[in-house]
Amino acid sequence: MHLFYLFALVAQLLVVGVLSLKIATSLQWIEHTPQPYAIKNFYKGDTAQLVSGGVANIATDRTIDLAANAETQGLIQYGSHPNIRIIYTIVDVGYRLVANKASGIKTLADLKGKKIGTMQSSSAAYFVNKLLSTAGLKDTDYTVLSGQICMKAPCGQGTFPQMLASRQIDAFGIWEPAVELGARALGDNAIIFQNTSVYREVYSLYSTKEKLSDPTTRKNIVAFLKALNQTLDVFTNNPQSVYATVAAAVGMDVSIVEAVWPVHKWSGTLAPDLLPFLMEEDQWVAKQNRQQALSNATLATFIDSSVLDDVRKG
Ligand SMILES: *[C@@H]1O[C@H](CO)[C@@H](O)[C@H](O)[C@H]1NC(C)=O
Ligand SMILES: *[C@@H]1O[C@H](CO)[C@@H](O)[C@H](O)[C@H]1NC(C)=O
Ligand SMILES: *[C@H]1O[C@@H](CO)[C@H](O)[C@@H](O)[C@@H]1NC(C)=O
Question: Are 38 and 118 within one domain?
Answer without folding.
Answer: no
